[in-house]
Amino acid sequence: MKLGWLNLILLLISVHCLNYSWSEDNQQQRVSALTVLEQPEENIGKRKEEATVEDDLDPEDMEVFYPTNEWQIIKPGQAIPAGLHVRLNLETGKNEAKFPNDGNGKNGLKYWKQGNRHGMVNTDSKSFTAEELKRALKLIKQDGLIDIDESHQEKVQKTFRPIKELMEDFEAMNVVMETDMEIINKLVSKFNNTSATLENKVAALYNLEYYVHQVDNAQHLTAIGGLQLVINALNATEPHIQENAAFVLGSALSGNPKVQIEAMEAGALQKLLILLATDQPVSIKKKALFAFSSMLRHFPFAQQQFLKLGGLQVLGQLFQAKRMESLRIRVMTLLYDMVMEKKLIQEAHDWSTQHQEKCHQYDQVNLLPSMLEQDWCMLVPQLLMSTEHDTREKVLRTMNLMISSCRSEYQAMQGLSSLLNMLRSEYEELAAEEQREGEQDGYFLGLLHSANDIIKKLE
């Protein structure tokens, strides 16, 4: 019996040892595949708890650091409002913070707290950060905002009437609200009416000019055939019709490439040149030159045709004509703008296909060489005799643009050197007066630089 119990005990011990040995072998195999650093169970629980707190931590739930004007130690886990001065105390090794002070020991930061919300507000600042705006928006009471909207809506309803009621009143009074295009249609019909008087035609053109400043309106005028009627009116026998037709045409052409092309195909350029070349009142030539300039600007094909049709000679005659002094500066400004237009296009660092095509078109416009051939080097400086600073400015910049080609002509012009020196002395005094008044880069200083540039290039 005792022997049986002894055998049973030995059998249990053998099984236990075998199980232990098998477990050790498996453990070694697992360690060889993945190393696991075992920690006490209590530490694992603590680590998990801390990780959970960090993931779900809301800054509003953190312990708040209340700043003062003195350095205070920042405890671990405390929320620090933005805008404070923070330092590391090298003696204690701890972080400290306080309000930022100005030279008088004052600061514009104020600590605020409302419920669970807290932060810093800069009371001296006239601007707000994105965070300050977000906090302010959170504090807006929605109920109050709705009340304001409702009260404002009631006020608007009492002050203004619905558009539907207004339309009904207009219909009752036989008043019809028309669109711009409907008005343009009526004005064109009025102008084209064979029974219309001269006064009616002039009034129609005068009112039409007001509407065609708009790009869409000008294109609509073209679409309904009104532009052709206006161009044909340039040949009218009545000066008032010619003048107002040129005015409408110039306004419709301004900055409107589609209308420029249509007008070019309709022969507007030739008709305008005739008005400028023939004996006409100054008022007609003034409006014709306006339309002529609107046609040529930013339209290289029109500029090519302008040169082919002898337009530069026409402008030269107009520049030298008697009783046309008021148009001289306009002519010179147009020529300067066209030369600069080509220069800027050629100097632009744009390698797109569209820009290269534009450069090719401007290469066909040989305006500056044509100006040199027709003695514009001698014509432009004549306007320096003007007493108007604006005129002098435009003359000086045009001379600067042409000086590389006109240097010998400028040097040979009698009295030009003394005139430039006189202008330099005048603008030195005016520029000095500007600087005494606090204008470091004033208008007259720019004119002084322009005069000096020409004088230096002619030396």
Automatic annotation (TrEMBL):
SUPFAM superfamilies listed in its UniProt record: ARM repeat (SSF48371)
Q: Tell me where it resides.
A: Endoplasmic reticulum lumen
Query: Which Gene3D superfamilies does the UniProt record give?
Result: Leucine-rich Repeat Variant
Q: State the source organism's domain of life.
A: Eukaryota
Q: What are the GO cellular component annotations?
A: endoplasmic reticulum lumen
| Record InterPro entries | ARM-like (IPR011989), ARM-type_fold (IPR016024), Hsp70_NEF-Inhibitors (IPR050693), Nucleotide_exch_fac_Fes1 (IPR013918)
Q: Would the keyword Plastid be found if you checked this record's keyword annotation? A: no
Record-annotated Nucleotide exchange factor Fes1 domain positions: 162-221
- Alphabetically, which GO biological process terms does the record hold? protein transport
Q: Which residues form the signal peptide?
A: 1-23
Which ranges form a coiled coil? Answer: 413-440
Keyword line: Coiled coil, Endoplasmic reticulum, Glycoprotein, Protein transport, Signal, Translocation, Transport
Q: Output one GO MF annotation.
A: adenyl-nucleotide exchange factor activity
Family in the record: Belongs to the SIL1 family.
Functional note: Required for protein translocation and folding in the endoplasmic reticulum (ER). Functions as a nucleotide exchange factor for the ER lumenal chaperone HSPA5.
**What is the protein name for this chain?**
Nucleotide exchange factor SIL1
